[in-house]
Design a protein that fits this description.
Elements lengths: L2 H14 L4 H8 L7 H14 L5 H9 L3 H9 L5 H8 L5 H9 L5 H8 L4 H9 L1 H6 L2 H6 L7 H24 L29 H11 L4 H10 L2 H7 L5 H9 L5 H8 L6 H8 L2 H4 L2 H9 L5 H8 L4 H8 L6 H15 L1
Helix pairs in contact: 1-3, 3-4, 3-5, 3-6, 5-7, 7-9, 9-12, 14-16, 16-18, 17-20, 20-21, 21-23, 22-23
Amino acid sequence: MTDTAWEADLLTQIERGDASPKILDFAARGMVPLPPDELVRAIASILASGDARLAPLAEKSFRAFDAASLKSAVLSAGVKPEQLAVVARHTQDAGVLEPLIRHRAVPDETLVWLAERVDAPLQDVLVTNQTRLLAAPLIVERLFENPRLSPEIRRRADEFLEEFFLKKERERDEAGDLEEAPEEEAPAAPAAGSVPVDEAGLSEDAKGSLFARVATMSVFQRIRLAYRGNKEERMFLVQDRNRLVSSAVLKSPKTRDADAETIANMKSVSEDVLRGITFRRDWMRHYGIMRAIVKNPRSPIDVTLSIVLRLNAKDLKVLASDRNVPDAVRATARREVSRKER
């Protein structure tokens, strides 16, 4: 057997877990005669196997690899999904992670993990692979959890939602498949002794029933329900932690001005939802919606500060002493009150 064939056979044994305990021990220490890229794969396989005895040795050996060896392993023929997953969790080098993210064999869950952590250039690589995003929309969801998410990638993720998740629904609407519902009125305040409702107008029973229904739904199904569902369903799903789902409520043709005002008053929705309301010029022409956005403590400050200037004198005075809004909003309201009273 030639040296090359022997090395290939050794790597295959380690990858399959067929190697003897002694060989696995030497491999975990980085002491088997394999080229750097194959040694990366061998030790990655040991780490992926979950062998508690070998894990400390393999971790120490793996941390010693340079970026060039890791990249060679990623690009090598026959690299395994579990090996790519191990590499992803052991490097921050963009030169290694870029080909790894593009690799067909990389597991969806690895891309989900990376989506929360990578910087803007690698975020771009993630959102470019739209085929993968369609198969695993959780990747997009986790991108929105990334504290370093760039405004450009956020915009492109929104476009992805528009293009792939809602386009078909809009086409069905245009074809007349969406049944027109009568204009829905905001729910009246409950009379004394009636069933109490939350800020979205939902009773505890309604919330429990909806939670049980959506808990078994895929992201695709929740997005469709958020876009096409009745008022109860939309008011529930606008609070969904998945931004794709909550955003679909705002894009639904069934979400009217009264619904937008209800949502703008809700303390349980995300900052992204409140920001999304302000992007709708038709909604922001309604004073009640504008006032609700300013008074909501979860609204993004960069949005509310400019809207404060559009409030009337009465609401400015109330806002100037409202301890529930950020200090910057309250201070701006006080300055406007002083200016108007001069």
